Amino acid sequence: MNIRIFDSFGLGFVLLASTLGLTQDAPSVPVPAVTGAVDADTANSAPDTNRMQTPPPVSGAAYPVSFTAEERTNYLRGGVSFNSAYSDNAFGSVNGHPMSDVNYSIWPTLALDESSARLHWVLAYAPGFTFYQRDTSYNEADENLALDLQYRLSPHVTFSARDGLQKSSNVFNQPDPAAGNPVSGGIQAPNQSVIAPVADRLGNAGNVGLNYQFAANSMIGASGTFSNLHYPNAAEVPGLYDSASQGGSAFYAVRVSKMHYLGATYQYQRLLSYPAPGTNETQTHAVMAFYTLYVTSKFSISAFGGPQYANVGTQFSTAALVPGSAFTGWNPSAGASMSWQGHRSNLALSYTHTITAGGGLIGAVRADSASASARQQLLPKLSASVAASYAQNDLLASTPLLANNGHTWSGTASLQQQFGQHLNLQLGYTRLREDYSSVAVLAATPNTNREFVSISYQFARPLGR
Predict the structure, then answer these.
(1) Can you give the residue range of the structural domain that contains 445?
(2) What's the pLDDT at 86?
(3) What whole-number distance in Å separates Cα of residue 450 and Cα of residue 383?
(4) Terminal C-alpha separation, the chain
(5) Structural contact between residues 307 and 330, judged by C-beta atoms closer than 8 angstroms
(6) Do residues 236 and 250 lie in contact, with contact meaning Cβ atoms separated by under 8 Å?
(7) Residues contacting 7, CB < 8 A, separation 6+
(8) 260-273 and 280-296 as β-strands: parallel, antiparallel, unpaired?
(9) Any idea what the CATH number is for the domain that residue 30 is in?
(10) Sorting pLDDT into bands at 50, 70 and 90, what band is 378?
């Protein structure tokens, strides 16, 4: 599994190497952010802004979390964060009771954000080091690496690639402790709702796409996606398993007017889990219609829906478990999302009902997922943010002895105060509740409460100026 994860992430470094060469050829000019939208109200004012946007259901990108006032390109950003957190479920169940502890983390961060006439790419890296006050055997080193790239091969053809790698033994340990799973309007999004708070894990997810606007108001595109989840020490996560997914899609979109987009897409998924010594494989096919309304350049509403066919293939086989009932048939798939990015406010909402990877469960699931995030600047130097998510996961193939159906809900609230240009203070609280009675690592201690404080120093330097 390690080899599979790092081979897929190698694509990001190949793309990065080519990017560094391409940026030498074009002058640096401001362009929209990688995940931004073209203003529908001014879409015909210039040749560049006449390009169609890739609608959120098929773009593969998460909604932005920044304010428009914070968006800047052609910068080198860096800094260091010092985080401390108290958790009442720091190490899972110990003698039948959750064990609390305080941890301390340091996160150096570095990010490159560069735009040219044809290219916009962002590379971010943040290694982390965490130390526990009570049990030093859990001290850890973390890795966070992400690449996001868009390149215009021609005036009407755009190539995009995104890849992210995370290595951690505590899912809450992040450079930004208030950052949760991003809200996405996409049809194919990784299932990250099953959370083992304290366990060594390697996660990798990415996608590659190519879009072609062949007419003034018509676009086609294709993309491939992948995700991998690996637990190096299976004894830390009884009831959870390594998993992987690969998928592909093709779409057609038409711009009915400046504000309205309609389209159709075909989606294929191959969903795998690895309950040793067997493999559980599910394949899905879906044909869906989608609609996006661009109310303004920073306010969009999307919806999609259609039939999805699933076929559960090879079932697991162990001495302790007996094969369960497979599922083959049709399932309705649908979803809706909204994103609003203001000068000092930000809001994103999403809901999906679809068949997707189990995210650590023993097989593919029929998932109902909802997520929301919001940020608001309260004072010139003070802002607040909240994020919440809920997911119900029902296995397609269940077993008499191991019905992993369950749900997860989580929420985080934080305040951020800026001192001067470089120093920030953040205070926050996270609540996690998981109800999976047949997953031992989650059933023993289903609740986690975590309070955190973070002090960070950050700098930004313009590139090519």
Answers:
(1) 2-462
(2) 95
(3) 20
(4) 44
(5) yes
(6) no
(7) none
(8) antiparallel
(9) 2.40.160
(10) very high
Residue with tokens 């969903």: 271
Q: Are 214 and 417 in contact (CB under 8 A)?
A: no
pLDDT at 15: 34
Token pair, residue 358, equals 């189990």
pLDDT in tens, 38-95: 333 333 333 455 889 999 999 988 898 888 877 778 999 999 999 999 999 887 766 6
Residue 13: helix, strand or coil by DSSP?
Answer: helix
* 300 pLDDT higher than 50: yes
- Count of beta carbons in the 10 Å neighbourhood of residue 215: 12
pLDDT score for 2 = 41
- The total number of structural domains that make up the chain: 1
Residues paired with 391 in a beta bridge: 369, 408
State the amino acid at position 420 in one-letter form. G
CA distance 288 to 266: 7
Instruction: Sort strands 140-154 and 93-94 into parallel, antiparallel or unpaired.
Output: unpaired
Specify the residue for token string 């889990």: 273
The DSSP code sequence of 206-240 is EEEEEEEEEETTEEEEEEEEEEEEE-S-GGGSTT-
Residue-wise pLDDT tens digits, 156-170: 999 999 999 999 888
> What single-letter DSSP state applies at residue 137?
G
Per-residue model confidence as pLDDT tens digits over 89-140:
887 766 667 888 999 999 999 999 999 989 999 999 999 999 999 888 889 8
DSSP 307-376: EEEEEE-SPP--SS----B--EEEEEEEEEEEEEE-SSEEEEEEEEEEEE--TTSSS-EEEEEEEEEEEE
Q: Is residue 393 pLDDT above 80, yes or no?
A: yes
At 22 the three-state DSSP class reads: helix
